[in-house]
């Protein structure tokens, strides 16, 4: 079968490799679509994702397809089922798994990071990580369930209420998901921050944002009850904290560099009684994410901009292909 193999830092190659054997507790999935995200850019450049990736490895932690085979101990799945998978595998026996925060697992592994993922024609995943895709959700949309679940986990960390005004800094794919999920969870209004007027106008309509701010032209006011940094730069993290009112909640979602720091006025954190949440991966969020996709409360089709072939991925991750917007790869 064909697979896109990360063989080293900034080295990707389409290779013919064997179809993986299916263990007793695993599902073999015929991959139809696999998403490309910021984590993949990082892994390509030698940075860690949810866990370190050791080449040679097949990336693709956002994937959907059709069941090709099930292990002998697997129940609830059969050949031909339309499925997606949560890539993150928790050990279940470390301190963090036992206290209910499995995303902090000391032994975290992940499909498409520490074991081969969806950027190949067939891949395996533990049956416990596989989910049926609702009949009305196309597999291309289902391949985005993992990024939806990551944004949803961030929202689940906070308390949402109808009086709240929310601010999302960053109009990449995850920022656009945050806009829709915050609206689905009942906040009063959502303001989206980006840097290009024409792009923001299109995104405002696509995700139902109530207002947009071009950060190159307009100062962000300090009037928000919920703020999200979906970029991960020191200046956007600072902006998320500074845009708050008293009693506000801040979600730091964008991934910064491992040695990165930002400045924060600790007196204002104290005086405003701010709550600042880091948000890491996506525990226990796939069922709700698939429901959001199925009900149309989150619409991804208007914001998935590109469908790639396997042999086009290296140019995108390497920056030679400068197309803008969310990419999914057709792998079937």
Automatic annotation (TrEMBL):
Keyword tags: Metal-binding, Oxidoreductase, Zinc
Stored SUPFAM superfamilies: GroES-like, NAD(P)-binding Rossmann-fold domains
InterPro entries, A to Z: ADH-like_C, ADH-like_N, ADH_Zn_CS, ER, GroES-like_sf, NAD(P)-bd_dom_sf, Zn_alcohol_dh
Gene3D superfamilies cross-referenced by the UniProt entry: Medium-chain alcohol dehydrogenases, catalytic domain, NAD(P)-binding Rossmann-like Domain
PROSITE patterns: ADH_ZINC (PS00059)
Cofactor(s) needed for function: Zn(2+)
Any GO molecular function: oxidoreductase activity
Coiled-coil parts of chain: none
Family that this chain belongs to: Belongs to the zinc-containing alcohol dehydrogenase family.
Record's protein name: Alcohol dehydrogenase
Organism: Acetilactobacillus jinshanensis
